[in-house]
Structures are given as C-alpha cells and as structure tokens.
Specification:
Chain lengths: 661, 302
C-alpha cells in the first residue's frame, strides 16, 4: 500500500518483492506442514461473532507449498513483465490498483487452504475472488474483451460463492458449529439428504472454480485476458483451490459418501478432460489454448478424486489412497508446467503484440530461451515421458487399472470409460501442444509482430527458469514427494499406506508390483540418442553439414504465407469431432458482374464456438435480459415507489416468519 | 539378473535394429506380389539404409534444432522400447524400469518429435503431414491404452515381464472379455485394411465410383466371417451371417455393373426369409437348452 506513492518502476519492484516474499514464506510454511508440523491459530477478534480460525495440516500444507513456490517465481517474472523496456505493454499492469492488489491476491491464495472455519474460509475465498477480478480487469482500457471477461468472471464466481455459502451454512447449521473440527464431528449425525445437498452445492461451486465443464465458461475468457503473471497465478494456483475444496469437504469434513457422488465427479472430470482439450486443440489464441488445457487437467484431477472416493466406498483403502495421491501429484505437476507455460507464452504478446498463433511463428531464432522454456512446459503438458505431467497420469492409470478388480457394475462401467477418456485427452493434448509449439514458435514468422520479436528481459527469464527447474525436479525425482503426499492423504481421512515409495530414483507401488524410474528413463533416452546420433557418423565418417535450400516440392520458393497455420493444423481433428464441436463455416462467393461463371472474391470463415456456452448459457442470458426488460415497467423513477417496494418486501418477510414459526 | 539377462537385452536391441527393415521389406514384398509385381526383395530397405547413410547430411536453411534432433529421437525411443519389452527373456536387468504404459508413451513421444520436425520446416507439406499424423495419433492412443488395460487387468499388473510370464504359464487368461473387447475392433480394422489391400488391383482396372467402393463390400464380408468365427451367442451368429450375406451381395453389385431387378428382389426376399428362419431356430434353441450359447450344441454330438 505504501508503495502506491512511489514512481512506477520502484512501485512495481516493491510490490513484486512483497509478492515473492509472501510466496516464499508460504512455501516454507507449506513444506513444514507437509513434513508433519501442524499448527493452528485462533484470532477471536478478527471477524465479528465467530472469530477467525486458521489451521494447517499436511493437506493444506501441500496446497500452500505449491501456491507459495509458484507465486514466488511468478512474482519475479512479473517485475520484468511490467517494468520491461520496449515491447507491447500497456499501462494497466503497472497501475497503483493492480500493484497493490497483487500481494493481496498472493496472500489470499496462500491463506484459503489454511482456513479452519466456515466464516474464515468464505471471507478468504471471496477476498481471492475479488482481488483476482481486479487483476483480470487490469487492462480494461485497452480492450472491450477484457471488460466482457471481467463481467463473466464476476458473475460466475459470485454464483459459485452463493452455492458455497448455502452449502457450508447448511452444513454448519446441522452439525452445531462452524469450525472445521465441529463440522467433522457433526458430519456423522446429519441426515443423508443434508449430506447429499451439501455435497452437491459445494462440489458445484468448487468445480466451477476448477474450471470443470459445464461450469467453465468464465475460465477461457478470464485467464487469457488477464496480464500474463496473473494468468499464470490463476491457472497454476487458483484452480487448484477448487480441487482442494472438493477433497477437503467431501473426504475430510463429510467423511465420504455414496457411490453416485463419486461417479458424478468421475463423469464431470472425464467430460472436462475431453471437452477442454478438444477446445484447446481448436483454439488459435495461444493463451486461450492454455486456459482450455487447464480445464482438461483439472478434469483429470477430478477423475482421480472421484476414483479415490469410489475405491474408499468399496472398502479398498490403499487403492483409494493411491488414486488420491495421483490426483494431488497431478495438481502439483499441473501447477508447475501451467505456470511455466503461461509465463513463457506471456512473453510472446509482450514481445510481438500478437497472441494469435496464425500470425506468430519463427520465434525459435528470435526468442531462444522463451521457446526452450515453452517446449519444456509443453513436454509436461502432453503427459509423455520424460515430462513431469506423465508421472501423475501414470499413477492415475495405475489406480484405475487396478480398480477394476473391485466388485460392482458402476466400477466396471466407469473405470474403463475413464481410462479411455484419459487416453483420448492425452492424445488430443499432444496434438494441441504440437500445434502451439510447432506453429507458434517453430516454422517461420507469418506476421510483422513475429518478425520484430526480441527476447524478453532477465527478470522474466529468471522467473520462468525457476518454474522450469521445478518442472525438471518434479519430472526426475517425484519420489521425494511421496512421504508428504502420504501425510496429505492421511489428513484427508484415508488410510495412508506409503503407496508411493522408492526414494529418489524410482517410483514404486509395492502393492501393485508396478514401478517407474524417471531418472533411468531420461538416462536411457539420452544414451540411445547419443548412440543414434553417433552411429551414422561412424559409418559415414565425420563430415561437415553444408547448408542447402529448403526443398520446395517443386513449387517455387516457399513463402511464409504457404506455411501451415494453426487453424489448418487443427482442421482434420475438427472434422473428426464435427458433431461435438459444431463449427460454424461460412463461404461467401461474390460473382463477377459480367458472368456468374466468373468469381470475383471468395470469403471463407471458420469459427469453433464453445458449444456448451452457446447451448446452455446464451439461452439463459437471453431469457434474463427479456425478464429484465419486462420488469422495467415496475421502475417508474419515483423514489417513493422504490421505498414502498422496500417496505413491502420487509413486511412480506416478517409475515412469512410470523406464519412459519 | 544375470549375464544371461544382459545378453538377452543386447540381442533384443540387435534383433530389433536388424529386423525392423526386414519387416518393412516383407510388407512391401507381399503388397508387390498381391499387385502382380515382382517386388524389390526383402533386403531392399537395408540397401536403401546403406545408401542413405553414405550420403552427405545437409541442413536446410530456416530449420532449427527440432529438425535435426527428431530423427535421432525417434530411433532413441524405439531403442529404449526394444530394450524394455521382454522379447527374449523376462529376466533382464531392465525389468521394473518401465511398464506397458511407458512403452505406449515412448512410442507417442517419437510421433510428437517427428511432427515437430515437420512443422519446423515451415512449408505447406511440412505442416500437412504432422497435422494428419497428430490426428491419427490422438485417436490411436485410446485404442492402445484400452489394449494395455485389457492385458493388465487379467495379469493384475502393468509390468511387462509379469504379463509375459503370466501369458506363458496360462495363455487362456489373456482371452478375458476385456481383452476381446479391445481385440475385436482392432481385428475388424485390420480386416478392413486387408480388404483395401486385396482390392487394389481390381480397383486399378476400372477406377469408377462403383468399383472404388468395392473394398467396402469385401471388408463387410471379412468382418461378417470374423463375427461368425468368434461369437458364441446364436443371435450374434445371425448378425454375422447377415453381414456376410450383405457383403457378398454388395461385392457382387459393385463388381458387376448391376443385376436385373428380378434377381435383386429375389435376393432381398432370400435375406428376409433367412433372417426369419434363423430367428425361429434361435428361439427353438433357447426353448430347448435355455440358452443360445453355441457351445451347448456339443450336447447333440453323442
């Protein structure tokens, strides 16, 4: 706050250093909690009536550690992003409001998992929503799309808050206390109907925050339009808290539930995974692609969470613990690679002024560090070895494959379908990220912005490198997280079984006789690569590699306009999933005036709208607008009439209360 | 883990490196013979490789590291897979380093590397290939992982050595409903490909629109036969028979330039009648045995 009076550059540095400090402190606290040091604090005077209760157990610690580490790295990146010389920046991110709100947002991200009472949780949740809303709106003067995105986000997050408020208030009312300890103790005594209602309300609110289909409409709008450091924080950290909320309420506070809860979660997760990644493969806006990929990865986390509940219900504790470990590990991995991707991708519009993949390309030579870091993040996102995303998906598939031995028709139907959906989403994710990397960063520049790109400054590179180092560590030695994840799963109320062991070099599931050794895999691939590169040299002798003209298929020198664009790259996939995506194609032929046989101009437009948004949201919005216009007759402009409405409303409420009691 | 294990891994690598070109040669040879050509012989891919390795490597202007590394990376993933899969022995020093899921993922990694190399050139054809390759890869991945699921569920693990050992000791275990579920579509796809390959010379004779569709008719015949041979329920048998019948009729119509209306009507009537008779027989069988499982017909044997 004090920094508001400082000049712009100093203000940004102070705010960035504050944010990084908050993140680092949160990371240390989270790691300590993950190591088994629980602590709690009670501040009775901070909030009226109930006071604020904070407590950190290993489950909170995991989310705090992830949030803190990502926040610290992104804050370093953010200083360079806002202060960087030249480029296509705008005033928005450097404004006083934005810079003052940024540390607040970071703090709320860290404190939400630490809340230990309903009121504290709701206050922090709302603080997180409002501060992120202000940050999304940072560039509202530059583009009307930012304002639309802000409106969508504000409405959706507050609808989520209403659901959350209703669900948690109902839960607190029936369990006789509002601290999480009271809820935990009272959950057993509440009726099944109340438990079901609480689960549905809170799960819907949390799933919306996690960007799960069909409550995702805000995510592909708000995440791309925010300044890139904010996008990284929202996509890398804030969506995690949706997953945290579901694990905390459904497992810890409610203590598990009937099968249909979990089947529902698996269904929503599978839908989000496939629909999200399909939209990502179609998107030609780089940041929109990443935002949809967030919906996909959160879908995978929901599948893991749902499977864990299903296994716990069927009585197989160790397998349930494994599925939840897989989900939590994927949360960690996703945070690392998605924040990395958003930071690397965020440097692109900063350097070129363009986010459209169709007009990018050729950044490999102009921004080598950024391209390399984006490639590292993409390797994680496509869930292929030796990337870090593969580890989480491998664990998830292991738990699902072994879950099939459990009895029950629902398990036998849900799990193979889930495996199929995970595989499909992994396949399409590969296509989406090959498109982003190959068309956007490799190839040749297809626009002026891309031609004039310059590598970003040292602070931006440093922040991104920190995230990249995190990704590499997670990819090579995931076993180090094993004990911490085990404690987190115990804190969620499942029997911890040391499901993942094996120390540094390997990941071993003793109960399932499965093992994976990422370090060995990297070493083997490197050795084989060296062998494959060396053998032809031995055979053919060492020769220089002269430059040669690019083969033009006999059609004359290829120009950048001939290069494949992102839209044409995605066209075969769009054709395969035509029925799901329902793209809008428009061919407009203008004939010459002399003869209809001669064509003067052909205009082709191809757009892939978000079909769920079109089918589910727009009709509701249209109806609301109609109702609003109709109710305009009630407001004549007379102040007395409006006051009279107030009085009537109050009287009606009292009447209902009097009759009801 | 013994000297024997190390030797087995080394021979696996040699076998795959030496054998892969031979497999390509075999496929080309079979296709050439089916098309009535003499073919270049089994060893032609080896000769091609020798020729290409002697050529001078060049760097096309405008390509980057992805273009140079991708071919070596594809070979590297294949080598690692060859070392991981227990082809000769299940007791290798690499047992437990990676499982079936890792193998599938490594193969996909090679595809991704090749696609990136294509896009790196920035030409129209360099983009077209990767676009199609990634579309196919996206759809192949679920099929492959369903096959992984089908192999792993009966074995209770995704570990390759354990699956292979289990299969050696108890081959029937792999024929679970889950593995058939995964195997049937794959077999049907293979049969369709076979139909296209077989019909190529015929199509080449007269590339008209009707003859172009000839492979479809053949594919229906083959899939119908496959259903007849593998399904147990009488109703599935009826469906298989109808498929076969439809396929034969379609092939006949497509290969000739149509038949008189009266024959057409007769054939349709014949199919209707056959369906009715088969349905009646199935119902009788259910009444007599309480099931429509064909295996129960063995009781008629004695």
């Amino acid at each position: 706050m004090a920094g508001s009076a400082l000049p712009v550059r100093a203000r940004v540095s102070v705010s960035g250093i504050c944010t990084a400090g908050v993140g680092a402190a949160g990371c240390v606290a989270g790691v300590a909690a993950l190591g088994g040091e629980a602590w709690s604090a009670s501040l009775p005077d901070l909030l009226p009536l109930a006071g604020a209760h904070l407590a950190v157990d290993p489950l909170s610690g995991l989310f705090m550690a992830v949030a803190g580490a990502v926040t610290a790295a992104v804050a370093v990146y953010g200083i360079g992003y806002v202060n960087g010389n030249g480029g296509h920046g705008s005033h928005g991110p450097a404004s006083r409001t934005t810079q003052a709100v940024l540390p607040l947002f970071a703090l709320s991200l860290l404190l939400v998992p630490a809340a230990a009472s309903v009121s504290a949780f709701l206050v922090l949740w709302e603080l997180m929503a409002l501060s992120s809303l202000l940050l999304v709106l940072a560039e509202h003067r530059e583009s009307p799309r930012v304002r639309t995105a802000g409106l969508w986000y504000a409405v959706m997050t507050h609808l989520g808050l209403v659901l959350l408020l209703a669900g948690l208030a109902l839960f607190a009312a029936h369990s006789g206390g509002e601290t999480f300890a009271d809820l935990r103790a009272g959950a057993g005594g509440t009726s099944p109907a109340v438990r079901d209602t609480v689960f549905v309300l809170t799960a819907a609110a949390f799933a919306s925050k996690a960007g799960a289909v069909p409550l995702h409409a805000w995510l592909p709008r708000a995440h791309p339009e925010a300044p890139s450091p904010v996008s990284a924080l929202m996509s890398g950290v804030m969506v995690n808290l949706g997953a945290y909320g579901i694990v905390r309420t459904a497992f810890d506070l409610l203590g598990g539930g009937p099968s249909w809860w979990w089947i529902g979660l698996v269904t929503v997760g599978g839908l989000s995974a496939v629909y999200g990644v399909l939209q990502a493969a179609m998107a030609s806006d780089l940041k929109r692609l990443l935002a949809y990929s967030t919906a996909e990865n959160m879908g995978l986390v929901l599948i893991g969470t749902g499977a864990a509940g299903l296994f716990a219900r069927a009585g197989d504790g160790p397998l349930a613990a494994l599925a939840l470990v897989a989900a939590l590990l994927h949360v960690v991995n996703h945070s690392a690679f998605k924040a990395l991707l958003f930071c690397a991708a965020g440097s692109v519009p900063r350097a070129t002024g363009v986010r459209d993949l169709d007009r990018l390309g050729g950044l490999r030579a102009r921004m080598p560090f950024t391209t390399g870091l984006f490639a590292l993040g993409a390797l994680g996102a496509v869930a292929l070895p030796p990337g870090n995303g593969f580890i989480g998906e491998w664990l998830l598939l292991q738990s699902l494959v072994h879950g099939l031995r459990l009895p029950g028709a629902s398990v036998a139907i849900a799990l193979p379908l889930a495996v199929g959906l995970i595989a499909l989403s992994a396949g399409i994710a590969a296509a989406a990220f090959v498109k982003a990397l190959g068309v956007g960063f490799f190839s040749r520049p297809r626009g002026e912005g891309a031609t004039g790109a310059r590598e970003s400054g040292p602070a931006m590179i440093a922040g991104t490198v920190l995230l990249g180092a995190g990704c590499v560590a997670l990819a090579l030695v995931p076993g180090l997280l094993g004990p911490g994840l085990d404690r987190a799963v115990i804190a969620a109320g499942l029997p911890g079984t040391d499901a993942v062991t094996g120390g540094r070099a390997a990941l071993r599931l003793d109960a399932l006789s499965a093992s994976l050794s990422p370090v060995w895999l990297v070493a083997a691939l490197t050795a084989a690569l060296a062998l494959a590169a060396a053998l032809p040299r031995l055979y053919g002798g060492r020769r220089r590699r002269p430059n040669a003209k690019l083969w033009d298929c006999g059609g004359g020198a290829p120009t950048p306009r001939m290069a494949y664009t992102a839209t044409s790259f995605a066209e075969p996939l769009q054709r395969v999933f035509d029925d799901v995506l329902a793209p809008e194609r428009d061919v407009d032929v203008t004939h010459a005036r002399e003869s209809t046989y001669l064509v003067e101009r052909i205009r082709f437009r191809n757009q892939v709208p978000d079909r769920i948004e079109h089918r589910a949201y727009l009709p509701v919005l249209a109806r609301l607008a109609r109702a609003g216009r109709a109710s305009r007759r009630l407001a004549t402009g007379s102040v007395h009439l409006h006051l009279g409405y107030g009085l009537l409303g109050l009287l009606a409420l009292f009447l209902v209360l009097a009759v009801g009691s | 883990m013994s000297a024997y294990g190390y030797a087995a891994t080394a021979s696996q690598l040699v076998l795959v490196v030496a054998g892969a070109p031979l497999l390509t040669g075999l496929m080309r040879q079979v296709r050439a013979r089916m098309e009535g050509r003499a073919g270049a012989g089994l060893l032609q891919p080896w000769r091609d490789a020798r020729k290409l390795l002697r050529k001078e490597p060049i760097t096309p202007v405008g390509t980057g590291p992805a273009f140079h590394i991708a071919p070596a990376l594809v070979v590297a993933t294949a080598l690692v897979v060859a070392a991981l899969v227990p082809l000769l022995s299940t007791d290798t020093p690499l047992a437990g380093r990676g499982d079936l899921i890792v193998v599938v993922a490594l193969l996909a990694l090679g595809t991704v590397a090749l696609a990136l190399a294509g896009l790196d050139t920035g030409t129209a054809f360099g983009g077209m290939g990767p676009s199609r390759e990634m579309t196919v890869a996206a759809l192949v991945e679920p099929t492959l992982l369903m096959a992984v699921l089908a192999l792993s569920v009966p074995a209770g693990t995704t570990d390759l050595a354990a699956i292979v050992e289990g299969a050696v000791h108890d081959p029937a275990r792999l024929a679970s409903p889950a593995s058939l579920l995964a195997a049937s579509p794959l077999t049907a796809a293979a049969l369709t490909l076979l139909a296209y390959a077989v019909a190529r010379p015929l199509v080449a004779l007269d590339p008209g629109p009707a003859v172009q569709a000839l492979p479809v008719g053949l594919a229906v015949v083959l899939v119908g036969f496959f259903v007849l041979a593998t399904r147990r329920r009488a109703l599935s048998q009826v469906v298989g028979f109808l498929l076969l019948d439809n396929g034969i009729t379609a092939t006949a119509f497509l290969a000739t330039s149509g038949v008189p209306l009266i024959v057409e009507l007769g054939v349709s009537f014949d199919v209707l009648l056959a369906a009715l008779v088969l349905q009646v027989l199935t119902a009788r069988m259910r009444a007599a045995f309480g099931t429509t499982d064909l295996d129960d017909l063995r009781e008629l044997h004695d």
